């Protein structure tokens, strides 16, 4: 299969191509300031497996999900680290920052009615859902995969269980967006509300990409490893 | 009315046709198509098992020995709908096993019609007649929901059956695109259906 980015592509060109890769690079633990380094050089400088990094960025930039041949010899640990970093980014950075902006926007729009509490309650319930979802992955799915890789897996858990329960965490975010766009009585020009909305839209896209990597990149790879392990046991 | 979300697997060896179909399906009005593409026959069963799509679009020439009923059983999706990608003149015995066919020159409108038939969507004219504003009764029920009353309580307050209350609630969620209680609360307060003092956000 031919891919857009090769080991010789310059790291800085990735970001020009697709801004969403900016967060991907950070979540792999690659620091900026890579000058004119190629992907191979920048990965080596940060101790990141180049093949794995390339497979993920190529998967993300390709808008369509194509279940191709499973890439062999990926560093699964690197993928797990990338996904875990994504979780902490959403839970400890992005969502709290949106919460602050939401409060500011609501407070400034109409002082006479205290919307604050209802909006915060809605948002906190949403964050709670996301947290449960991500904690399940951190505590159940990833440790299972690590056990599977080390050949020490004895339980009955299978990655298909995760796929079945992988609920759609961006639907409630869409609901909040819906309320703000369609039903919120904002008056005139409201930059703060605008700011919250653009953050929500970006965050929704970012979360969707994160989930796409989990469902269509990570899960098939693990599924293939499960099948191989089962065969060698037979 | 909000879009119907459907998960679609596209099994076709040509990447141009496969991706072309995926992009085209995303333009169909009234549906939100989530697609994934399957390039090689060996991946078909495994992917269906893992992702349980609602619709399989497949090129019958490359999967000529495909036994659809057996496939549905093995993948454990008995409700799976199927469409054949038709790139030439085929004998009807090949295509009649599928719910419908997709031709390379189908227009978006034709595809929409086919999707509506396959997924039993009521006539789009009927659907647009019903607007998205809430009826008086629905507003009453929404107010009760937001105040924290249970379906049973609402039923006895408004002299309705619990079943009717549930139907109204479902319609409210569909019309507004809001499903959670907290979301409905925001809607009700913002639209002045209830006073903020009537809802207790701390419980």
Descriptive notes:
The complex is a heterodimer of chains A (234) and B (203). Chain A has 9 helices and 1 strand; from the N terminus they run H-H-H-H-E-H-H-H-H-H. By secondary structure, chain A is mostly helical. Chain A folds into 2 domains: 11-70, no CATH class; 75-232, no CATH class. In chain A, helix 5 (76-109) runs antiparallel to helix 6 and helix 5 runs antiparallel to helix 9 (191-233). Chain B is α/β, with parallel strands linked by helices. Chain B contains 10 helices and 5 strands. Chain B starts with a strand and ends in a 13-residue tail after the last helix. The model of chain B has no long low-confidence stretch (mean pLDDT 85).
Helix/strand layout:
The complex is a heterodimer of chains A (234) and B (203).
Chain A: H1 11-17, H2 21-27, H3 39-45, H4 50-61, E1 66-67, H5 76-109, H6 116-149, H7 159-165, H8 170-183, H9 191-233
Helix pairs in contact in A: 5-6, 5-9, 8-9
Chain B: E1 4-11, H1 15-25, E2 31-38, H2 44-51, E3 55-58, H3 68-74, E4 81-86, H4 92-95, E5 100-103, H5 108-118, H6 124-129, H7 136-146, H8 151-157, H9 162-176, H10 181-190
Parallel strand pairs in B: 1-2, 1-3, 3-4, 4-5
Highlighted features:
heterodimer; A: 234 residues; mainly alpha; 9 helices; B: 203 residues; alpha/beta; elongated
Helix content of chain A: over 70%
Kindly provide the radius of gyration of chain A, computed on alpha-carbon positions and rounded to a whole number of angstroms: 20 Å
Counted by DSSP, the helix tally of chain B is 10
Beta-strand segment tally of chain A: 1
Looking at how many chains there are and whether they match, the oligomeric state comes to heterodimer
Coarse structural class of chain A: mainly alpha
How do the helices and strands follow one another from N- to C-terminus of chain A?
Answer: HHHHEHHHHH
- What structural class results from the helix and strand content of chain B? alpha/beta
General shape of chain A: globular
How are the strands of the largest sheet of chain B arranged?
Answer: 2-1-3-4-5
* Overall mean pLDDT of chain B: 85
Rg from Cα of chain B: 23 Å
Proportion of beta-strand residues of chain B = 5-15%
The helix content of chain B, as a percent range, equals 40-55%
* Biggest contact: A-B, 32 and 33 residues
Largest sheet of chain B: 5 strands, parallel
Question: For the terminal residues of chain A, how far apart are their CA atoms?
Answer: 32 Å
Uncertain residue ranges of chain A: none
How does the major sheet of chain A shape up? none
């Amino acid at each position: 299969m031919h891919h857009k980015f090769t080991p010789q592509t310059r790291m800085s060109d990735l970001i020009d191509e697709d801004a969403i890769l900016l967060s991907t690079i950070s979540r792999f633990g690659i620091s900026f300031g890579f000058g004119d380094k190629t992907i191979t050089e920048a990965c080596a400088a940060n101790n990141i497996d180049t093949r794995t990094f390339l497979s993920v960025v190529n998967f993300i930039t390709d808008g369509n999900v194509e279940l191709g041949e499973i890439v062999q010899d990926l560093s699964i640990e690197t993928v797990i680290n990338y996904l875990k970093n994504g979780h902490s980014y959403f839970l400890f950075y992005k969502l709290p920052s949106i919460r602050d902006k939401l409060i500011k926007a609501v407070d400034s729009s109409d002082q006479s009615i205290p919307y604050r509490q209802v909006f915060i309650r809605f948002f906190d319930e949403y964050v709670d859902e996301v947290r449960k979802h991500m904690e399940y992955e951190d505590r159940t799915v990833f440790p299972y995969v690590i056990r599977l890789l080390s050949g020490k897996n004895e339980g009955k858990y299978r990655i298909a269980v995760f796929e079945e329960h992988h609920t759609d965490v961006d639907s409630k975010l869409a609901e909040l967006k819906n309320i703000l766009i369609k039903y919120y009585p904002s008056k005139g020009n409201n930059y703060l509300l605008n700011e919250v909305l653009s953050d929500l839209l970006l965050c929704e896209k970012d979360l969707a990409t994160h989930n796409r990597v989990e469902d269509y990149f990570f899960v098939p790879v693990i599924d293939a490893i499960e099948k191989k392990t089962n065969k060698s046991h037979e | 009315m909000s879009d119907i979300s459907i998960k679609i697997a596209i099994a076709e060896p040509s990447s141009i046709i496969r991706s072309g179909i995926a992009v085209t399906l995303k333009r169909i009005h009234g549906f939100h198509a989530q697609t994934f593409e399957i390039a090689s026959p060996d991946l078909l069963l495994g992917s269906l098992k893992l992702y349980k799509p609602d619709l399989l679009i497949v090129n019958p020439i490359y999967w000529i020995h495909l036994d659809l009923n057996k496939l549905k059983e093995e993948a454990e999706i008995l409700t799976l709908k199927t469409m054949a990608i038709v790139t030439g003149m085929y004998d009807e015995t090949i295509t009649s096993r599928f719910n419908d066919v997709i031709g390379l020159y189908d227009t978006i409108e034709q595809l929409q019609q086919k999707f509506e038939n396959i997924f039993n969507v009521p006539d789009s004219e009927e659907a647009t007649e019903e607007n998205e504003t809430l009826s008086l009764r629905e507003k009453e029920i929404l107010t009760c929901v937001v105040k924290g009353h249970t379906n049973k309580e609402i039923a006895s307050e408004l002299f309705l059956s619990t079943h009717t209350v549930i139907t109204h609630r479902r319609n409210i969620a569909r019309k507004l695109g809001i499903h959670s209680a907290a979301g409905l609360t925001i809607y009700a307060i913002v639209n002045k259906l209830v006073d903020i003092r009537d809802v207790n956000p701390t419980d």
